[in-house]
Amino acid sequence: MLFRFGSLCLACALVAFFSAAQAQPARDLLGATLLEEALAARADAQSEIRKDRYFSVIDYRAPSNVPRYFLVDTENMSAEAFLVAHGKGSDPDYDGVANRFSNIEGSKMTSLGAFVTGATYYGAHGLSLKLKGLSPQNSLAEERLIVIHGADYVNADRAVLGRSWGCPALERQVAERIIPLIKGGTFLYAIGTQSEEESDAGERISATGFVLALCDREAAF
After folding, report:
1. Among residues 81, 113, 62, 110, which one has the least CA distance to residue 214?
2. Burial classification of residue 51, based on how many CB atoms lie within 10 Å of its CB (0-12 exposed, 13-18 middle, 19 or more buried)
3. Is the CB of residue 184 less than 8 Å from the CB of residue 51?
């Protein structure tokens, strides 16, 4: 019994060690420029933020098979990186690179903007987290129920991740772990690059901007 208990304690310690080892200084993992941009955007949105410890950064300029969702812990300014999918409409040739974005319902595209997290709910994809858009480019975020959720098509075994209908979809185990940390008023900043094009509403979308998504339509309960 003592041997089994000791083995269990050792296993727990190893898990904790390797989990902690994934965290790196945020400036090293994100790069100084992106981190400073994210911090400036977070400062601008301070009136909307209710929880300060964590914030998220998504760099959609990277391809989908590269960890590009960064969870930053402001207690020690460390960060972890995770895989995240983009919208099917943002990557119509399915090469793993998002280069089109829209705020239009039904586009299945990732949309541009800065966000703050809202409430959680259980929908078609399990545990999900609502997002409120803070930018003109994502003004339909709440109406469209843009959310963060887990998905089986997000995993490191794929050369190119599957595509969502615009949601920033995470690996299931990652979503289960980090959604409780970032729910209820944390900031999310994401950046992407695209060629300038007309949106369906006849408005110009900036060539470089914040990024997020069209999503799950389940009612909260």
Report:
1. 110
2. middle
3. yes
Instruction: DSSP letter for 198, please.
Output: B
Domain boundaries, the chain: 25-213
The token pair that represents 20 in the structure block: 């902690």
Q: Beta strands 169-170 and 24-25: pairing type?
A: unpaired
pLDDT in tens, 7-48: 444 444 433 433 444 899 999 999 999 999 999 999 999 999
Cβ burial, residue 192 (10 Å; 0-12/13-18/19+): buried
Residue 161 vs residues 6, 98, 156: alpha-carbon distances, Å: 39, 12, 8
Which of 124, 84, 119, 87 has the alpha carbon at shortest distance from 217?
Answer: 124
Mean pLDDT of the chain: 82
The yes or no reply on domain 25-213 and CATH 2.40.30.110 is: no
Q: What is the DSSP letter of 141?
A: T
